């Protein structure tokens, strides 16, 4: 590998590493400083174990670490080592940051400190959701995952091609709704749904609508290498067309591919590594249906 390419890949790795860790730290801050002290929950596996924490005081970090380990073992074969490796690191880091945050926010009496003071539930709800959304958004931008429901959703999507967003939404509503039969506290249910709405909106704004797909048109002389990387490193394929430069009258291959928005940076990086001289056009693709995307519904 050329020294320049090594340096480029190192800085890309470092940027992703810092972004993932910053995102996880902000996500943990939202829980430890604002949501947990005010007995507010939301969706996801973190929300489920927050309910367990309120009931039993069993450490959230330990519960999440155990649950993620079991899920990742189940996901290794169907989802591959790349997904499992990246998600495993995020899961361990999340447990570490969450435990550290809870330790910092625990007072001498053993209770979590209400940083904003008593009776500030609404402000705590908004701030906690904001930090959660920013944190998870930073992780998603790098193509990462925080584990939990993401693993379950990825497994279901792999087998049944159901929208990841829809799976996660159903699971979130079940978790938050369970607060009523457990605690008989309408406040927790309302704040849970408010937190979920703000959290989802912040993620959506940060990643500029992660459900959008990207269409790539790549003019290159190294089409085989690019297509092989797309197939091996994403869940998508590509189509190769014959082209001719009208000015030069030289033959050239045109690679056509549609990928999820979160994979845009991955595709651009691999094109730069393989053929820096490639001519690339990208555009938003609205309403993509078929294998790996949305199912066609009559």
Give short descriptive properties of this protein:
about 300 residues, alpha+beta, Alpha-Beta Plaits, 2 domains, four-stranded antiparallel beta sheet
Q: What does this molecule look like?
A:
The chain has 298 residues and is of the alpha+beta class. It folds into 2 domains: 3-206, no CATH class; 213-285, Alpha-Beta Plaits (2-Layer Sandwich). 62% of the residues lie in helices and 10% in strands. It has helices at 3-35, 44-56, 60-104, 121-141, 149-160, 164-177, 179-183, 186-206, 223-233, 264-274; strands at residues 213-220, 239-244, 251-260, 279-285. A 4-stranded antiparallel sheet has the order 2-3-1-4, with helices on one face.
Shape: elongated
Please indicate the percent range of residues in DSSP E strands (runs of 2 or more). 5-15%
Low-confidence parts lasting 5 or more residues at pLDDT below 50?
A: none
Encode the helix/strand succession as letters: HHHHHHHHEHEEHE
Straight-line distance between termini: 50 Å
Quaternary state of the chains: single chain
**DSSP helix count?**
10
Widest sheet: strand order? 2-3-1-4
Helix content: 55-70%
Q: What is the number of beta strands?
A: 4
Summed up, the domain count is: 2
Main beta sheet strand tally, sense and closure: 4 strands, antiparallel
Rg, nearest Å:
22 Å
How does the helix and strand content classify structurally?
A: alpha+beta
| Mean pLDDT figure | 83
């Amino acid at each position: 590998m050329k020294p320049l390419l090594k340096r480029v890949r190192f800085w890309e790795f470092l940027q992703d590493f810092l972004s993932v860790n910053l995102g996880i730290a902000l996500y943990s801050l939202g829980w430890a400083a604002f949501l947990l002290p005010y007995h507010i929950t939301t969706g996801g596996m973190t929300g489920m174990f927050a309910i367990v924490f309120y009931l039993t005081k069993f450490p959230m970090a330990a519960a999440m670490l155990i649950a993620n380990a079991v899920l990742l073992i189940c996901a290794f074969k169907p989802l591959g080592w790349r997904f499992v490796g990246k998600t495993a690191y995020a899961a361990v880091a999340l447990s570490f940051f969450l435990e550290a945050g809870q330790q910092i926010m625990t007072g001498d009496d053993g209770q979590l400190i209400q940083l904003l003071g008593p009776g500030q539930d609404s402000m705590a709800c908004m701030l906690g959701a904001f930090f959660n959304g920013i944190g998870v958004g930073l992780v998603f931008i790098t193509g990462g995952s925080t584990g939990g429901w993401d693993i379950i959703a990825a497994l279901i999507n792999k087998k049944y091609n159901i929208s990841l967003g829809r799976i996660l939404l159903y699971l979130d509503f079940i978790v938050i709704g369970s607060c009523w039969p457990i605690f008989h506290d309408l406040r927790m249910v309302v704040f849970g749904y408010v937190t979920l709405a703000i959290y989802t909106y912040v993620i959506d704004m940060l990643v500029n609508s992660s459900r959008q797909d990207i269409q790539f048109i790549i003019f290159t002389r190294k089409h085989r290498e690019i297509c092989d990387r797309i197939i091996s490193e994403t869940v998508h394929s590509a189509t190769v067309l014959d082209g001719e430069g009208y000015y030069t009258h030289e033959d050239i291959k045109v690679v056509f591919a549609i990928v999820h928005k979160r994979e845009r940076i991955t595709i651009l990086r691999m094109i730069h590594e393989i053929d820096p001289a490639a001519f690339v056009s990208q555009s938003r693709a609205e309403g993509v249906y078929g294998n790996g995307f949305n199912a066609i519904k009559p």
